[in-house]
Amino acid sequence: MSATTNQRASRLEHVEAPGSMLTRTAARGLAILRYATGFVFLWAFLDKAFGLGYSTPSAKAWIHGGSPTKGFLSSVDVGPLQGFFHTIAGTWYANWGFMLGLLGIGIALIAGIGLRVAAVAGTVLMAFMWLAEFPPASGSSNPVVDYHVVYAIVMIVSAAAYAGQTWGLGKRWAKLPIVQKNRWLI
């Protein structure tokens, strides 16, 4: 390999964030993917909280006494955790946990902060939702990899690639003293 080829290759592999090997275009692509996924979670929160009429009619909004978990969890009719989901459907702790999870994950992804925590919380949420719909038994077109798995992977990759540093608050967040002491908060 010539010196010119090596120089071109090193420019292409310019490190945008500590520990990463992302091109500027790849970092921006991950930022857009992070924003889009964050908006999926934030929109689900807003629609269920305020009944914006897309998935949740206004009359069933959380602010009007509706339950964000009762309809979905009480209709689980397949899978190994069917009884568990029926038991927690509509309980205060399921409603609050689900809604705080949607809001927190959505804000973290859009802002680009706390992506490790968001990836863990989001993966757990997606795993429970995958189990509630249990694709092998529900007639899903793919019994293993569906949108729950894809969202979890997007969150994990966003955290691993420091995607919050591009078009987000990740760099500022990482400099906070509490984050410096507790690196898992990155």
Total number of helical segments? 10
Instruction: Measure the end-to-end span.
Output: 38 Å
* Main sheet characteristics: none
Which ranges are low-confidence, i.e. pLDDT below 50, for 5 or more consecutive residues? 8-15
Rg for CA atoms: 20 Å
The total strand number stands at: 0
Helix and strand content put the structural class at mainly alpha
**Quick one: overall form?**
globular
Q: State which percent range the strand residues make up.
A: under 5%
Calculate the mean pLDDT score and round it.
89
The succession of helices and strands, N to C, reads: HHHHHHHHHH
Helical coverage, percent range? 55-70%
TL;DR?
With 186 residues, the protein is an all-alpha fold. It has helices at 3-12, 24-50, 70-74, 82-88, 92-111, 115-133, 135-138, 147-160, 170-175, 177-181.
